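Human:
Focus on the backbone:
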Amino acid sequence: MPEGAYAQAGVDQGAAGRGVAALVEVLRGIDPGRESRAALASGHYASVLRLDERTGLALSCDGVGTKVLVAEQLGRFDTVGVDCVAMNANDVVCVGAEPLAVLDYLAVEEPDPARLAALAEGLKRGAEQAGVEIPGGELAVMPELIRGHPSPRGFDLLGFCVGVVPLDSVVTGAAIEPGDAVIGLPSSGIHSNGLTLARRALPDLLETLPDGRTVGETLLEPTVIYVRAALELLRSELDLRGLAHITGEGLLNLLRLEAAVGYRIDAPLPDPPVFDLIAERAGVEESEMWEVFNMGCGFCCVVAPSDAESAVALAERHHPGAAVIGRVTDRAGVVELPAAGLEGRRGEGFRPAPTANR
């Protein structure tokens, strides 16, 4: 298969997957000198550790990626903190946990007070949207390691989120069955995955787009935080069976849920115009666009079919445009996109679907 546009831009998702597997293979052999407290196997959106017989501690760690380069180039630092909180809190809520706190790790080329205050504004806004505290963190000044675009604006930002969940209420997706409804919640755009390819396709950050915003403003649009909607669904009487944060690998993230099922997405949410522009400018095949980007859907909820209408109504109060986008199938490990004529599997990406499955 020819090398994809994302790999040409510097990110080989297949190699990254193999790298993660190598890390996990070693780390799963850790002997802590006591019985393991892990309540979930590796691969879910967040880890869950048993605190006692009833309570689980949910944990997630993630960063903002090369979105920080856009912030450096534009000299705008007040948005990426939202992304930092979102990338972690959205994952923690996927296992049914209530996120409680985020710690941030900020590595900088230069500890400029104005830039740090701007970064903190984004973290504050994200924390308030997610309903979490930021009780601490770490600032590392590393001019030999961090180099800005331009210097001395260089920084990197990541977070660590902790939440709690009753062990008998952990959401793994194991209860999902064929016929269940998949509800999609709209994204605000690119979020925090695929920025390396987006920057390659749209290098002029000051270019004005048809909607009146610049490329830079569009790329810096913060990741949507879905925590409050997800918690309301979890606390409702609705039969919620799975939650999925749609990040790198796009809708293939649905396959991280535990049930041996597939997903047919026959009514996808509208994709923001920036995705069409990226595909056009960088010559990216549609199959790769669906693998790299969220394509307009930032979060998915899987519910019993009888609860689909009520779940959409609840989600829309937080995220207008939420809708049923598909259903669960018995084709284990396969995500179907019939409108695009594609089907995908984790580790393989999306490919043209056999005619019989369209």
